[in-house]
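Renewal narrative, Specific Aim 1. Our central claim is that a sequence can be written position by position from structural information alone. The example that follows is taken directly from our test logs and has not been curated for this report. It begins with the structure tokens describing the chain, in the order in which they were read.
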């Protein structure tokens, strides 16, 4: 039954080697939202696109780029893994609103407004004071809505997240975070945020990153699925997905770049301590090619139906992307081409 569903991991930043692509292919995953950049500016972001172009060329038998939902269906039909790109910060647009549409045409489908810190657009979850969406941020939200670039608030503070949900004319996502009722981490989201997100058609991707889970690396599959079930009871199954936040086989230097970028001389531990300086131990039930299938089976044992489990492991991502990636101009054109009703 697992193989019949479309399976999507809503966030990864693993070491992108051919061996890893083969593992993803063997796992039955049809598409992955891959982090393209953390702190890179516009010029460096173009280099990251070029690096991925080389990966697509070398591994064309395994992976393919995703620019639309139709591409996900094509990847599934061809037995390939689709890669869709996102940014975990607003750094790719520098301070230039025109770069939103430029990056969208390059294939940047998802962009976070912040990564932990205050940005030009909004406040990150590790800041002491959350001042909400900035003047620039309001314009960027409108522009992202216009061009069909998805707003992601995974690393943003509460007020900023709630304002982004309210300001956006289109549903937004929190691609990789968990509810604070399961684990009270600054990166996790309150019931207030989750309810507001889902009330406007948004999507929450549950994270497998141990620092955001109950009992950390000792979190059991049963505990993870119980967290999903409690959230489903609160907001409905149709708003839930998986965004594993998996960073497999990456060196410590990558972790330091994620946390520090160019802004800090000291190692930033966020809300943690020096004990969190390295990568956490992987979850044994999510490591390797059986991870997503284990979640699917765990959801079934928790009481979800096959259809509901299929929604959570990928179907809801498909529906969310379908309604969120089409530029507004194309939506308006399609609306204008619709036939008039007989009594219009």
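The sequence written for that structure reads:
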């Amino acid at each position: 039954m697992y193989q019949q569903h479309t399976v999507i991991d809503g966030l990864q930043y693993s070491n992108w080697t051919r061996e890893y692509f083969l593992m993803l292919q063997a796992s039955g995953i049809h598409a992955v939202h891959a982090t393209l950049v953390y702190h890179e500016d516009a010029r460096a972001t173009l280099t990251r696109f070029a690096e991925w172009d080389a990966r697509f060329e070398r591994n064309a038998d395994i992976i393919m780029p995703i620019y639309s939902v139709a591409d996900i269906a094509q990847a599934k039909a061809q037995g390939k893994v689709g890669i869709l790109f996102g940014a975990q910060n607003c750094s790719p647009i520098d301070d230039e609103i025109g770069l939103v549409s430029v990056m969208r045409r390059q294939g940047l489908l998802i962009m976070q407004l912040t990564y932990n810190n205050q940005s030009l657009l909004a406040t990150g979850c590790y800041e002491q004071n959350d001042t909400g969406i900035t003047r620039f941020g309001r314009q960027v939200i409108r522009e992202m809505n216009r061009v069909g670039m998805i707003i992601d608030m995974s690393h943003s503070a509460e007020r900023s997240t709630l304002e982004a949900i309210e300001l956006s004319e289109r549903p937004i996502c929190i691609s990789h975070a968990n509810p604070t009722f399961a684990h009270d981490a600054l990166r996790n989201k309150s019931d207030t945020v989750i309810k507001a997100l889902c009330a406007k058609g948004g999507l929450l991707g549950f994270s497998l990153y141990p620092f955001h889970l109950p009992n950390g690396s000792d979190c059991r599959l049963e505990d993870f699925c119980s967290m999903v079930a409690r959230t489903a009871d609160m907001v409905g199954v149709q708003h839930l997905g998986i965004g594993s936040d998996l960073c497999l086989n990456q060196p410590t230097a990558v972790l330091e770049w994620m946390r520090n970028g160019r802004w800090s001389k000291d190692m930033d531990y966020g809300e943690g301590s020096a004990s969190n300086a390295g990568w956490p131990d992987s979850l044994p039930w999510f490591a390797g090619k059986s991870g997503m299938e284990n979640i699917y089976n765990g959801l079934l044992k928790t009481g979800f139906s096959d259809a509901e489990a299929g929604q959570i492991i990928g179907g809801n991502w498909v529906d969310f992307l379908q309604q969120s990636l089409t530029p507004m101009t194309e939506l308006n054109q399609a609306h204008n081409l619709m036939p008039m009703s007989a009594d219009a």
